[in-house]
Amino acid sequence: MDQMFMLxxxxxxxxxxxxxxxxxxxxxxxxxxxNTQNLEIIERLAVSKESSLCIVRMCGTYYFMTVGQxxxxxxxxxxxxxxxxxxxxKLKAEVKQVAQQTKYQEVVLRFSSWVTGKLEKRKKx
Length: 125
Prior knowledge:
The chain has 125 residues and is of the alpha+beta class. It has helices at residues 2-32, 80-124; strands at 39-46, 52-58, 61-67, 72-77.
């Protein structure tokens, strides 16, 4: 009986800690993810553990930048042709990802209908 009480007490406190952690993360997320309309990281490529190359949109202008732990430098401003090419590639990648997700969903639906059919056959037998 004493062990059962300790188990229930442990589960209760685990749930309380998880709920508190959830609320703390939601509260802190307000300050970490500041939504801005003037700044957006379009693409990021990690070069090393502490630095990366980025394409950034600042106030409607696109820049190619290096971002490190201690500094960020603008390498150059991108031309409108380069921006259009980046936008086309990004859109193409998003369409490809949606198509892959759709194919995955179709496979899952086929498999689940196959399993349902097998289970119904077993019930009838």
